[in-house]
Amino acid sequence: QVQLVESGGGLVQPGGSLRLSCAASGAGLEYDAAGWFRQVPGKEREGVAAQSGRAWRTRRTYYGSSVEGRFTISVDNTDNTLYLQMDNLQSADTGVYYCAFGPFELYGSNWAYSRAYDHWGQGIQVTVSS
Questions:
Q1: Residue-wise burial string across 55-85, b where 16 or more C-beta atoms lie within 10 A, e elsewhere
Q2: Each residue's pLDDT tens digit, 36-63
Q3: How many CA within 13 A on the CB side of residue 110?
Q4: Which of the four pLDDT bands, split at 50, 70 and 90, describes residue 29?
Q5: Mind giving me the DSSP string for the chain?
Q6: Which one in 12, 33, 68, 129 has a CA-CA gap of 20 to 30 Å to 91?
């Protein structure tokens, strides 16, 4: 059974930083894509960032327009851990963040579709407030 466990969320002031981690495990874990989504109260779930590459021989990185330049996604394939480094956090970044792994290599805007991912973390709260 594949399991994704998230950590690293919390409360920070505007301009601060957080680093989210997502540790994946399980005998059935195979993935060519990994990403982060967030759920903001009153809004639909949106894609934050993703990386994808067939067997991770090469990889492509994608970011939502609202976070590009501030967030950095990385995938450590040696231990199946996904990270999201979040810098210069703003109040609009507040929400529940979900990590996700998908079985197929993704291209273009496909990275931001939830249906492309088949394993999800439990969600972790990020609150940005002064």
A1: eeeebeebbbeebeeebbbebeeeebbbbbe
A2: 999 998 899 999 999 999 999 999 999 9
A3: 15
A4: very high
A5: --EEEEE--EEE-TT--EEEEEEEE-TT---SEEEEEEE-TTS--EEEEEEE-GGGSS-EEEE-TTTBTTEEEEEETTTTEEEEEE-S--GGG-EEEEEEEESS---GGGGG-GGG--EE---EEEEE--
A6: 33
